[in-house]
Amino acid sequence: MFNNIIYSIKKLSKRGIQNMLMVKKFGGTSVANKEKIFNVANRCIEDYKKGNKIVLVLSAMGKHTDELVSLANDISEVVPKREMDMLFTVGEQITVSLMAMAFDKLGIPAISLNAFQVRMFTDNNYGDAKITRIETERIEKELSENKIVIVTGFQGIDKDNNYTTLGRGGSDTTAVALASALKADSCEIYTDVDGVYTADPRIVNNAIKLETISYDEMLEFSNLGAGVLHNKSVKIAKENDIKLIVRSSMSREEGTTVANLYTKISNLPKITGVTSNKNTVSIVGKDIDTETKDKVIESLTKNNLKFNNLDQTNMHISINVKNEDINPCIRCIHDLFFKK
């Protein structure tokens, strides 16, 4: 649980609608080059100039983490986890420092901070550490001086000041944890998609973007293969009632809000969407019943799609199919529930 976050020294003052504290997270593809870095900077400046305080969380640029893995493997086939985390933290530090330079170029005061400077404490489970405590005093000080604060995602420090990393989706986790610790007014997760869809739009061209989705439904999506948000970040958001907004870094489209509510679209509101993970296709919803299960079986059979091990829980149905049938299966199920 993340309820034991320690808020340091003093809390931020009450904020009006034009004086919000906003946490924004941008992934690696959003900051992969100079043009994209300035795009992120300008989007943040728009909110900054409205009188809002901005905490920006960044991932490593593009495929930089993969490059670091290659460097390590070139040295040794078996790399100590502690040293791998030491290496990985370089990626995010490069991104945040370049971003701070971009703000300076644009005439906006900003400062980059790594996990050590923030004092973002974790356990010592290298490679998959869990945040235990965040000291917010340094961030609050910089915000009070009207700076945009840029924080490295994905990393923390243990009790002995060793660097740690948070595992897959770690920058999402950093952003949500900071939003909780700072009592932020919003937490926006910017990705290369413009929201959460009823299915992967690369597979289903008529997939519907959801305006809202509940924490529980988003957790099911994350656990069952959807890569929009990592399940750790959604869990923290749910535990601390933090409203997440998933948006695109490359468009102005309205995103999807993840909060304590349930989606209502189509004439079957219990079904939220379809996702896949390796050779398993899953239907995500709320209290999926036998009638829905029967409709799925009938539809797959009618379309000559082979499947087995159709398992049902109170939140989803999982169907095992051959790899070559995954995409046709997703389209078949999606059309069953969402085709207009």
Layout of helices and strands, plus pairs?
Layout: E1 21-26, H1 34-48, E2 53-58, H2 64-75, H3 81-105, E3 110-113, H4 115-118, E4 120-122, E5 131-134, H5 137-144, E6 148-152, E7 155-157, E8 163-165, H6 170-182, E9 186-191, E10 212-214, H7 215-223, H8 231-240, E11 244-248, E12 256-259, E13 271-277, E14 280-285, H9 290-302, E15 308-312, E16 316-320, H10 326-338
Parallel strand pairs: 1-2, 1-9, 2-6, 3-6, 9-11, 10-12
Antiparallel strand pairs: 4-5, 7-8, 11-12, 13-14, 14-16, 15-16
Report what the structure shows:
Helix 6 (170-182) runs parallel beside helix 8 (231-240) and helix 7 packs antiparallel against helix 8. Strand 7 (155-157) and strand 8 (163-165) form a beta hairpin. The chain is globular. It has ten helices and 16 strands. The strands form four sheets. The protein has an eight-stranded mixed sheet with strand order 3-6-2-1-9-11-12-10, sandwiched between helices. It has 340 residues and is α/β, with parallel strands linked by helices.
Which descriptors apply to this entry?
340 residues; alpha/beta; 8-stranded mixed sheet; 4-stranded antiparallel sheet; globular; disordered N terminus
